[in-house]
Specification:
128 residues, alpha+beta, 5-stranded antiparallel beta sheet, 4 helices, 5 strands, 34% helix
Amino acid sequence: MPEERYLYEYAVIRVVPRVEREEFINVGIILFSKRKKFLRAKYMLHEAKLKMLFPEIDIGVIRENLRVYDQVCSGSRDGGPIAGLDIPERFRWLTAVRSTVIQTSRPHPGLLTDPEVTFERLFEEFVE
């Protein structure tokens, strides 16, 4: 009998230092599965690459702002009122269209059996 597969959505987290130029570097992934009650984000800053392409970028500010993804995904009190919402609402808030330095791609759907395995595969594919 085949393993049961569950619908999931993911978005790529991007750093967009010059919003008007629409140039970006992928820095993370956020994955959500309602049926598996899974919401997780992971990011990695390629500091040398960011500094090479955007010398004026403040890596400390970027890193600080990315922590919001951890806080909201985990439901931490440090994440403010958004972190208190249910998992689907938190995912929708995190992936809402923004014109800021940290943005996400539009959500993409798929089917998974194990959210952790899928999450790590997507992170490797889009970020590492």
